[in-house]
Amino acid sequence: MKAVRLYDYHKQPIVEEVPEPVLSGPLDVIVKIGGAGVCRTDLHIIEGQFDKVMGPQLPYTIGHENAGWVHEVGEGVTNVKVGDTVILHPQPSCGLCLACRAGRDMQCTDAFFPGVSNNDGGMAEYMRTTARACVKLSPDTNPADVAALADAGITAYHAVRKAIPLLHPGTTAVVQGAGGLGHIGIQALAATTSTRIIAIDTHPDALELAKKVGADVVVLADGDHVQAVKDLTNGVGANVVFDFVAEHGAEQDGWLMTATGGSQYIIGYGGELRIPTVDFVLGQKNVVGNSVGSYSDLVELMALVEAGKVALHTQQYPLEKAAQALEDLANDRVRGRAILVP
Question: Ranges for the Enoyl reductase (ER) domain (predicted)?
Fold first, then answer.
């Protein structure tokens, strides 16, 4: 089969022929990939940022946002069968540790992360995962239309879901970065809260997308956007700021836009937030970190998708054009999410 393989850090991965994955345990599932999302994390992997964190052994197949059709199942699998359409939670978990039993899949003590850690990912024709990662979808779902919801989608939804108690009618939420994750976050906010949504981005076309998917107000990040948010909130600031950028100064802007007693939810990464401790004390503000959502978050998000309340905007590429997709993402030429289709 064809797969996108990373051989060296700081060099583009290549598409080559490799053996198809095989079942190795009773709960294993082989999935025929119908769509694989291209994520900024893939760029960070190529740059070597995950070398010491996850320690993947090169070469391996990247790709952690995957959906497709069940191709083969282990003898212990009962929740899906061959032919089912599925989206895959990006980090299969054990189901037995305390974190799993509490529904905190991403904190599983025995998890693995295909496409990020030492397990081959889904930028390929086939991928091995486990039964616990599979969420069964309607058979008429096109996997390429939803694949990136497996990570980008639940990451955005997870942050929004945590903030719902803070976003009652009369509140304001800022979404900083209306791209691949941000446009999903806007839709999740519109579907689950009554807050006023202000979207901020450096790209006018991203702001056009933000308007279409539910933002009440859009603001161009042109150097005056912090003041614009203050003006829109009578000088108070936003009750919640969702920072999907969190680098190149956006993380500091997010803090300045957050109202006294408000919360800054940080989802993007790469920058450094520096705040005098007195600002925490006197401002009574919160900074909340967010990682990938749980299996339950993915199930809930797909329910919103099937209800027509969330839709992923995609730019699709054949698998052979993986290098082009990664280059387009790195150079901000992708609106929504880039998807590889084998």
Answer: 16-340
